Structure formats: C-alpha cells, structure tokens
Amino acid sequence: MKIGWFVRGDIDGFFGLFVDNLLQLMLIAVLCGNVCGMPPELVYARILPGAALSILFGNAFYAWQARRLAIRTGRADVTALPYGINTVSLIAFVFLIIAPIYFETKDPHLAWQAGLFACLASAVLEVVGAFVGDWLRRHTPRAALLSSLAGIAITFISMGFVFQIFAMPAIAVVPALLVIMVYGGQIKLPLGLPGGFIAVLLGVAMGWILRWCGYPYFQPLQEPYQFALHLPRAAFADMIAFLTNGQGWKYFSVIFPMALFNVIGSLQNLESAEAAGDRYDTRSSLLVNGFGSIVAACLGNPFPTTIYIGHPGWKAMGARWGYSVLNGAVITLLCLIGGVTLVLRVVPMEAMIGILLWIGLIITAQAFREVPGRHGVAVAVGLMPALAAWALLLIETTLRKAGATLYDVAPRFGGDLYVYGIIALSQGFMLTCMILSAMMVFVVERQFLTAALWTATAALLSFFGVIHAYVLTPAGVQNRFGFGAAKAFSLAYLFAALLLVALHYYNRGREAEGTGIVA
C-alpha cells in the first residue's frame, strides 16, 4: 500500500486546527498588549515567532509519528495528534503570573521574563511526567480520561461558538449547519469536495456580499498590515535573569498544578485518540509535548504548547497527517511575517467556527460512545466540574462588563445562585472531573476499595489546595495552596472513602453468604 503525505480530508482538518491555533495567537496578542502592557515589538517580534517555531516543531513530530504508525500497521486512516498553544495554561499564566508582576512593577519586560520562566519550569515538569504517564494511563478508567475532555468540549468549545454563531446568523448559521450535516450525516458532496472548506468559502462569500450590499455584518479589521520579517531569537539571558532574582519560585504553586494539568490533559487526549482507533506511545508523545514547550520558552514564547483536544473530530473529517504539516507551516509563516491578523481582514471568523463547533460535539459524543453503557453515569458525573468552570467564566465576564466584581457581588447572591459552590467546584476542575468519574466507574463495577482510593486522593488534593480551594479577592478568584487549604472538602472526601471501605466489607460479606462460603 502506498502511503502519501496528503489526502483530501487534510484540507478540512487544516482549517479546523488552523482556526484553533489562530484564535490562541490572537488571544496572546490581545492579552499581552491590553492586560500586561507589552509593546507590539515584544509581542510580534519575540513572542509570536517563538510560538510559531514551537508549534512547527510539535506538528512536524506528530505528523511523522502518525505516518510511521500508518506504515507499520498498513492502515491509511491514521490521524495525527493535533497540537498547539494550551488555552488553559495561557489564561492561567497571564492572570496568575504575568499580569500580577506587571501590575506590581509596571515593567512589561520583567512580566514577560516571568512567563518564560513559568513556561520552562512547566515544560521540565511535563518531561518528568512522561516517565509516569503510562502508569497513570493504565490505572485510570477510560470514562475518567474522556469525561473531562467532553466537559471542556461541550462548554468552553461548543457553547461559546454556538453563542457567537447565533449572534451573527446572517453569515454564521448556514456554514455551521453545513459542517454539522455533512460530517454528522456522513454526506458526500458533489465531486468529493471537502465540506469544511466549502462551508468556509460559503461564509466568506456571504460576508462580503452582504457587506457590499450595505449590511455591516462583517467588519474587517481596520489595522493596516505592514510586511516585516520577525525571526525568533534566543531568550536564555532573559530566563536566567528572572531565575537569579528569586521571584520565580514564589509562583511555583501555580506552575506545578498547571504542569500536572498539562500532563493529565495530554493523557486524556492520547486516550481519546486510542478510542478513535489510533494508539500512540505515551512516553514519546509526552516527551515531545514537553520539549515543544522548552523550545517555546527558549525562543521567547511564555505559553506552553501541548497535544490538543479534538483528535476524533479531525479523524471524522478524514484528516490524516498532512493537515498537521500544513498547520505548522502556515502558522509559522504568518507569525514570522507578522500576518496573524491578516487572515481576519479577509475571512469572517464566524465563517470558520462551525468546524470548531463540530469538534466539540464529536468529542462529547465520543465520551459516551466509547465506554461501556453502564459507565455512562460516570461520564455524566465527570462533566459537572467543567460545567461549573464554564458557569464561573460566564458570571465573571457578565459582572466585569457591568462594571462590578465577583468579590463585591458574591455575598448578595444568597440562595438564588450558590456561587461559592460554583467557584469551589471549578477550581482544579480537570482533576476533579477525572477523580469523580473514576470513583463512579469503580462503584458501578463494585470495586469499592479502588473507588475509596480515588476518593482518598480527592481528600489529599483538597487538603493541599490542588482542587476546590480558592481565595476571592478584588482581582478575582485566585488559587489557594498550602496545608489545610480546603479542609471541609478534604474531610468530606475522607468520610466518603471510609463509607466505601465499609461498603466493600459489607458487600463482600453478602456475596459470601450468597455463595455459601464462610467469610
């Protein structure tokens, strides 16, 4: 069998992954400039070129990895792991590390150095995590690994884009429905044309036609584009400078959980890929994941890169490994010539996001489809922390736009909206999703001692503040780490673990009676 580099489905896969990466790069430009006070030359000449090379590095490896798997197994339907900027780490590093240093010192360069240190430290911890990843993956139920992905997919991915689509129905609804119908119904278009590509072209045409007719539904960016070549430069001196002043270590309480979340998120995505039919080696995948972030930090990008959520969606589109090569090459080119915003001067964002909506839907469906039917309740339980995290985002965004803060308004919610419960459940939600789902799987399977171990793990993580602990400040919700950080949750989980142990012995005794065996 001849194994090539590109198939027609790679075009659709490229559009989906490219849009996702482009959104993250735009978010970097906005947050670094508006929140952290970084000048354009720092953002466009240092951060984005470094991000481009780290994205190219990872995309090239995972494309090679997929092609090698296809050759070894004789399969032509292998899909490469998607790869790009980690959204959760991006937000956490901006608001918990980079922005606080900028607000304190008013020095954007020092804040950027802090981000580089955080990215490097997180990457080193991810490399270490690669050597225990296989063990974690073998001992964690599939429902636990997939449920948090489903929670993120249905909330942070799908619902946000659904709102954006229905806010701009004139140019967004038709392309989105076309994507969902073509891929959900497995409909083949005339001449074998790729559905996602046709949907984007349709959205672009509708946007510009309506604009020419005098309807301002599509507003191209007005910022003029000037061609410039920005080559990445080493940032070792900046990292060392921040490391030697001792400030970096006080943010380790943020860096370590984020590195842990990145490792767990990558494991979940590897499990998602295996559920879709593509099994990749855990250690090499996680090592390259960590090395990609090391490349990012060393070249001036303070935001980790990682294996992306969404493999089943791109596989369902027919993408293989060529989409990864295309994405790495185009993203790199745009970043190096300062053209990240150039695409948005021509293509309405609403024309492209239907592809991302489909990714979110297929991931959510996979979480229920690829587990035993009796484990469906475990997946449902695992969705709840992600829903809480998304609800908190909506609440905070609404209050901020209204000129208020959650710190001022929270005491007035009372019983109308248990906002403190929303905050507590959202803290460390990726871990909580996994733990609650795993606990439920083992309860369903009547393995009460194993369920008790997972529940005791939740008690331990609560005690040290990795999950559920928080401090509500005028600046927003902040993590709270340390001994006894969430004692009430720790005690509750510990008591639940003891109940599960009691159920184990009670259940064992009843089974012994039923079989006539003396316990």
Notes on the structure:
The chain is mainly α. The protein folds into two domains: 9-371, no CATH class; 372-507, no CATH class. The protein contains 20 helices and four strands. It has helices at residues 9-35, 40-73, 87-105, 108-129, 133-138, 142-167, 169-184, 195-212, 236-244, 252-275, 282-298, 311-317, 322-336, 349-369, 376-401, 406-409, 419-426, 429-444, 448-464, 487-515; strands at 83-85, 305-307, 470-473, 476-479. It has a two-stranded antiparallel ribbon. A two-stranded antiparallel ribbon has the order 3-4. A hairpin with a 2-residue loop joins strand 3 and strand 4. Helix 6 packs antiparallel against helix 7 (169-184) and helix 19 (448-464) runs antiparallel to helix 20 (487-515). The longest helix has 34 residues, at 40-73.
How would you sum up this structure in a few lines?
This protein has 519 residues and is mostly helical. It has 20 helices and 4 strands.
Low-confidence stretches: none
Total count of helical runs of at least 4 residues: 20
Radius of gyration: 24 Å
Number of strands: 4
How many discrete structural domains? 2
Helix/strand order, N-terminal first: HHEHHHHHHHHHEHHHHHHHHEEH
